[in-house]
Amino acid sequence: MIAKIAEITLPIFVIALIGFFYSRAVRPDFSSANKLVVDIALPTLIFTSLSTKDFNPQTAALFTGASVMLIVFSGLLAYPLSKLSGVSWRALLPIVMFTNVGPVGIPLIVLAYGPQGLAPAIVLLVLSNILHFTLGSGIMSGRIDWRMVYANPLVWATILGIGFSQMHWTLSAWIATPLGMIGNILVPMMLLSLGGRLSTSKIDDARVGVTGSVCAVGVRLIAAFLILQLLPLREIERGAFILFACLPPAVFNFLLADRYQCEPDKVASIVIVGHVASLAFLPLGIWLAFL
Question: Please, which residues have CB within 8 angstroms of residue 287's CB and are 6 or more apart in sequence?
Answer without folding.
Answer: 1, 5
